[in-house]
């Protein structure tokens, strides 16, 4: 039985542990193109992505670990070893950033960040629909200036937002139980809200 689009959306889950093969060039184009249909106030197109593939993943791991230590951030030997072991199998990282266009003062920064968040969510959903695992991480020196600069996303003109790891799930992902949306939704009918 075929899976409907809404069933894809409802079954998406993050998959951290992935391996080769990565999405093909055509599939990667679809994943990146999916980002372009995110809502975007003012059509600022603030999303920026850098592809890190193959051997470059290990180079990024080296850079991120060394820069994290140089910045005096905590990084235990265990954390470094587990991160390197994880990345050794990851075939594709997509570095994620929001470009801050300082000439535009109409759309506040948080709306630009939300547009990039929506774009990345589209990418997560596209990867899932194509049968790949994807996982958004703000580890790997995301908050270390030297890493941001090395990737071309300096802190003056960009907000660096982490990475998507993308590949083939190592284990078939188990379904996860999601909360009931009714816990988070109320209905406003126009009457004054009673404050408790
Ligand atoms: C902006 C952002 C950054 C994240 N960074 C991390 C991270 O560094 N480490 C982590 O374990 N999970 C991180 N997560 C959470 C995972 O990507 C994932 O959403 C979480 O494991 C729950 O899985 P689910 O998406 O299937 O619900 C981040 C999520 C977002 C939206």
Automatic annotation (TrEMBL):
Binds 1 FMN per subunit. Its cofactor is FMN. The keyword Phosphoprotein does not apply. Transmembrane segments: none annotated. InterPro entries: NAD(P)H_nitroreductase, Nitroreductase, Nitroreductase-like, YdjA-like. Keywords: Flavoprotein, FMN, NAD, NADP, Oxidoreductase. FMN binds at residues 12-14, 41, 136-138. The keyword Mitochondrion does not apply. PANTHER family: NAD(P)H NITROREDUCTASE YDJA-RELATED. This is Putative NAD(P)H nitroreductase. It comes from Eoetvoesiella caeni.
């Amino acid at each position: 039985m075929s899976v409907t689009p809404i069933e894809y959306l409802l079954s998406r889950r993050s998959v951290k542990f992935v391996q080769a093969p990565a999405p093909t060039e055509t599939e990667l184009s679809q994943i990146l193109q999916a980002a372009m249909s995110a809502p975007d106030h003012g059509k600022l197109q603030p999303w920026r992505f850098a592809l890190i593939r193959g051997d470059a993943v290990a180079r990024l791991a080296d850079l991120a670990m060394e820069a994290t230590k140089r910045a005096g951030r905590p990084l235990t030997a265990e954390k470094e070893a587990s991160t390197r072991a994880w990345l050794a199998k990851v075939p594709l990282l997509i570095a994620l950033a929001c470009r801050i266009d300082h000439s535009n003062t109409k759309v506040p920064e948080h709306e630009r960040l939300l547009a990039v968040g929506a774009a990345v969510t589209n990418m997560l959903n596209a990867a899932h629909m194509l049968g790949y695992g994807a996982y958004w991480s703000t580890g790997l020196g995301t908050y270390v200036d030297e890493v941001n600069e090395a990737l071309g996303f300096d802190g003056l003109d960009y907000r660096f937002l982490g990475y998507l790891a993308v590949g083939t799930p190592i284990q078939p992902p188990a379904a996860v139980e999601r909360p009931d949306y009714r816990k988070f939704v109320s209905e406003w009918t126009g009457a004054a809200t009673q404050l408790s």
